[in-house]
Amino acid sequence: QLTFEPGEIQTAIEELHHKYRCLQVGAIANYIPELAKMNPDWFSICVVTADGQCFSVGDSQQLFTIQSISKVFVYGLALEDRGRDRVLATVGVEPTGDAFNAIILDERSQRPYNPMVNAGAIATTSLIQGKGATERLNRMLAMFERYIGHESFIDMPTFMSERTTGHRNRAMAHLMLNFGMIDEKIDEALDLYFQQCSLMVNCLDLAVMAATLANCGINPLNKVQAVSSCYIRDILSVMYTCGMYNFAGEWAYKVGLPAKSGVSGGLIVVVPRRMGIAVFSPLLDERGNSVRGVKVCEELSQRFGLHLFES
Ligand code: GLN
Known about the structure:
Elements: H1 6-20, H2 33-36, E1 44-49, E2 54-58, E3 64-65, H3 70-82, H4 84-90, H5 118-125, H6 132-148, H7 156-165, H8 167-178, H9 186-197, E4 200-201, H10 203-214, H11 232-242, H12 248-254, E5 259-261, E6 266-271, E7 275-280, H13 291-304
The protein binds glutamine (GLN).
The site of glutamine has 11 residues, from loops.
Family: Belongs to the glutaminase family.
Keywords: Acetylation, Hydrolase
Pfam family, one: Glutaminase
């Protein structure tokens, strides 16, 4: 239960929005034109509690592509499709300390290190069940709809750009095929991965998705079970140790909450059994995390005593 009044949340996010609105540190991802044309001023903070109260400030309706934040939810679907042992045989749960797009596998097991870096995410996506590409995509879209609470869509220009420029991701897929970690249908797996990254969401959607994870897999607004509650601990564990890439350790120390960032500037944070937080601001630091997003979450965690090991 909350140890503070709901009104305090709205006041806090408005104050933080005001405080960091003019912070112009960081850079917008520019590896594809669809990301490069984002407005650096876009900024929103949203909170959805486990009992369904919504708080928001800023550009909460602005659509953008979900990018790496999708990895969290696709990991949940892979666990439901294949079970814990099968998923763990293909993707590890070890933080890397390397960049999100590092071309590296665990030497001993030949698995990608974890599902939050690109290699591990591609391997995770390759585990999604379905007869052919369309059924797999539709199952994935249905999964996202359960978390968001309404239908969403793939941004076609982003998908096409990711697909034509994604040589690094393609190289990782080939490396994993070489080691037998994924099957020969690598083009299908890569397309599905590029599609999941190109899903359009807004900041409020992300907060609802995070709140669903906070609420044992049940969307707090429409009460739909988005993912089986038995996999919440798997999802939150890898978010906690790996969700912020090579900043995960410092994040765990300072903020102390499971989180996931994406290259379009989104950031979700889960406060188990209490709330989901989302921040959207496209200016990124050198590790690929939203600059304002990190600052806002550090302060929110501190102000409300949200660190998991706070005593
Ligand atoms: N589409 C991006 C990629 O695969 C996602 C990475 C990210 O958001 N960090 O490189």
